[in-house]
Write a structure and sequence with these properties.
The chain is an alpha+beta fold and 324 residues long. The protein has one domain (22-323): 4-Layer Sandwich (Double-stranded beta-helix). 21% of the residues lie in helices and 24% in strands. The chain contains 7 helices and 18 strands. It has helices at residues 41-54, 66-74, 152-157, 161-167, 187-194, 230-244, 314-323, and strands at 6-8, 17-21, 28-31, 56-59, 96-99, 119-120, 132-139, 147-151, 171-175, 198-202, 204-206, 213-215, 222-225, 250-253, 260-264, 268-271, 284-290, 304-307. Strands 1-2-3-4-15-7-17-5 form an 8-stranded mixed sheet, covered by helices on one side. It has a 4-stranded antiparallel sheet with strand order 6-16-8-14. α1 links the parallel β3 (28-31) and β4 (56-59). The termini are far apart.
Length: 324
């Protein structure tokens, strides 16, 4: 049976919003919210509830500027620095430019492509990955450039009971690794040298707000499973990566200018488009991430840092940089 749109906050009140699920497991479009100004308390709660339930929520036709984007984000948490490794927009330390040819895409053709290539959860190399990400579309191609998200809690439930029992006790090593680049002094690699990050997270985490178990296996950043041989680790990870990116756990979003995607970074992975590199059209989005906490495993043990410092708020990061 197809889920019907959900009206919240009272169907006849000016503060009502409409939540329309897009797939069975993940993604909902929210109508009736004006993100250019503070949300009324009831709307704020309803948006938060939809965010936790559907993992990623979408708002159409918002057209925020940088300051409005930051103000909107602060209603849901404390913004981090734009990107702990790759910097921020000048004058707006909370914002990261997701441009077509940004540094993170440098030398992208040098790696082997697999069905799970590019899928990732934001900045899991840090001991406290962001709790959420808020992405704003500004320059959008007329076609192409769609983004995918997958529900890692639904993926966990989709494993057999035997496999769930096995992965519950494992921990993954997440890190940024330098890219092979024929040009010495690669900007990407230089940024990694300045802020190396590596952490050990539970392979299955317990969501801090919903209590759901989450298969936390970001394909781009988890490099190995602690305590296993390299071959054991690789084979198990490939099986899990293939599993979490199965179509039934995913949603595909076609952007328009002014659209906003707000997702739970603790329970999703997403896939940035690669088709844009075959297009002459530009693509420019801007992202804010919210400060997160170390993740907790089924056994109650938290994430641990291997290298680097936790991600701080934008204000704290700026103070730290100024003191260096």
């Amino acid at each position: 049976m197809v889920a019907s749109p959900q009206r919240t906050a009272g169907a006849n009140t000016p503060e009502a919003i409409e939540v329309t699920p897009l797939t069975l497991h993940i993604g909902a479009e929210i109508r009736g919210a004006d993100l250019s100004r503070p949300l009324p308390p009831e709307q704020l709660k309803d948006v938060r509830d939809a965010f936790l339930k559907w993992k990623v929520v979408f708002f159409r036709d918002q057209h925020l500027d940088h300051a409005q984007h930051v103000a909107m984000a602060r209603q849901f948490g404390e913004p981090t620095i734009g990107h702990a490794v790759f910097g921020h927009v000048e004058g707006h330390p909370e914002i990261y430019s997701v441009a077509k040819n940004r540094t993170a895409n440098e030398n992208r053709t040098a790696t082997m492509v697999t069905p799970w290539s590019g899928w990732h959860t934001d900045i899991t190399a840090a001991v406290n990955p962001p709790s959420a990400s808020i992405l704003r579309g500004v320059t959008i191609p007329p076609y192409g450039g769609d983004t995918f998200w997958t529900n890692l809690a639904a993926a966990y439930k989709g494993l057999s009971p035997t496999m769930r029992g096995f992965v519950d006790g494992l921990r993954g090593i997440h890190k940024y690794v330098p890219r092979e680049n024929p040009q010495a002094g690669s900007v990407y690699n230089e940024r990694l040298k300045r802020r190396a990050l590596a952490s050990e997270h539970p392979l299955v985490t317990v969501h801090a707000e919903t209590g759901e178990r989450v298969l936390f296996v970001s394909p781009t950043y988890v490099k190995s499973i602690a305590g296993l041989t390299p071959r054991e680790s690789q084979k198990i990870l490939e099986m899990l990566w293939e599993h979490v990116t199965r179509p039934e756990y995913t949603v595909r979003f076609k952007w328009n200018e002014g659209d906003i995607a707000f997702w739970d970074n603790r329970s999703t992975s997403h896939l940035a488009p690669t088709d844009i590199f075959e297009s002459d059209y530009d693509r420019q989005l801007y992202r804010i991430t919210l400060v997160g906490e170390p993740l907790i495993g089924v056994d109650g043990k938290p994430s641990t840092s291997i290298e680097g410092v936790p991600i701080l708020s934008a204000e704290q990061e700026l103070r730290m940089m100024a003191a260096q």
